[in-house]
Prior knowledge:
This protein is mostly beta strands. The protein contains 5 helices and 33 strands. The protein is globular, with a radius of gyration of 23 Å.
Amino acid sequence: MWSIVKVPVFQILGFILLSSFLCSQALVRHYTFVVEDTPYTRLCSTKSILTVNGQFPGPTLYVNKGDTIIVDVYNKANYNITIHWHGVKQPRNPWSDGPEYITQCPIRSGERFSQKIILSDEEGTLWWHAHSDWSRATVHGAVVIYPNHNKGSGYPFPKPHADVPIIFSEWWKKDIVEVYNEFQRTGADPNISDAYTINGQPGHLYPCSQSDTYKLTVDQGKIYLLRLINVAVEDILLFAIANHQLTVVGTDSSYTKPFKTDYITISPGQTIDVLLETNQPPSHYYMAAKVYSSAEGVDFDNTTTTALLQYNIGNNSTTPPSNPPLPYLPFYNDTKASVNFTGKLRSLANEDHPIHVPVNISSKLIFTVSVNTLPCANDSCLGPNGSRLSASMNNISFSLPSTDILKAYYNNISGIYGNHFPSKPPLVFNFTAENLPTYLNTPKKGTEVRVVEYNSTVEIVLQGTNLLAGTDHPMHLHGYSFYVVGWGFGNFDEEKDPLGYNLVDPPLQNTIAVPKNGWAAIRFKANNPGVWFMHCHLDRHQTWGMDMAFIVKNGQGPDAQMLPPPSYMPPC
């Protein structure tokens, strides 16, 4: 049968009542997550996947701006797990942020961990996912954060008839644990996925998938809010709806100046809120997503996932087409199409939604992000020339410690990490040149953090390199949103490029795709004490070591200091 979302009158009333209730006051909301193996059938075969509450995608959390969420996580699976609340700043509370061996040790099989998720100024769409190995391939779900009407705010756009999370993910026929273990064993690129999915379904263009294609039923002449979330493990995606333009109104739980577009480019980790006007003749139209991949010589899943947008025809005698139109999507490696979309994002920056871009910078940092190689320990690796693929930031390939960094920092345990992550690249060369000497390919390995003073104003220039395989890198920072004040191609020019920064209405994001052989500049105020992870959200790059962590020191006074740990943390 179809996977159908219909929006009849009684559901519209329910949506209005739910929105009114959720937006009435800040509350403490309780959820239970049971992590367990569940059989699912896709692409003509059945396998067990890791799920939360048996659902794929997992449950959507509906909350209000400023709420606090208590989630009791029970791990009934055979693997360790952690859960991260992607884009939630967690003010002064890194203990529930979730990345394994950064802010906690994993929740072991048979154990329980109660996580406290503190919302602050987030408003719009975020998501949650596993943050251990590659479990997030199936352990993920949406977080819908409604405006707080009690404080005089509401949507800065026409109130939608209904809102619908649209989650893009990947599906492997193999167990994702097998894919991960083989990837680790060979030292090469991982096996590509067998399909992309929209809300858990591959769609018409894949075998054994037509009857379960996700289907959104809409009424003509209405406005719908689509909450787009890319949870894919490995790929940036392009998305469009046939014969319909979309109006972008938000990204990463922050409102944007609205603009119309024919397609969306969305990175892993990113959320984009769009308005869909159902202004076409009643019929069926494909929604479709496929890969954007800029790396040369790297395999990728070149399939297309589809869902159906179906107009509610009612008594109309119109027969839906047997082959609905597919939307136009840019070519898979069209770099300009990617940056032309992301470059249009601007903060709303008005009286109701002000922004606070740091102007006087006290900590200027430049981080290179590179794909590298390491020597193979036993001559069994399948990377370039028998090497093991790696990745780095500022030429350091991050190694996860055996005890979480947060615990070591809070309890002053030595030997777990170093605090010498460099402020600038230790090796300076023509980062984006076509032919680079091979000796530059090998990074150092280490567990280094960057210590930042409380309330300092930070600028980071993320500089892509052409080492081994130049490509886009969607970089995510935990504990903060940041203003993307500039980006460009080639090597960052410290004298010229800051002159073109947008300090008026830059977008506020938590994930930014550094363009292939280019750079992106971000700014934030370090007013959230704790240990906060920064990493590429392409999981192969994260696993290879394109990561680091910040320690933001405590400030003066109790409101500027990290909260104490909960009574129970998972043991290491």
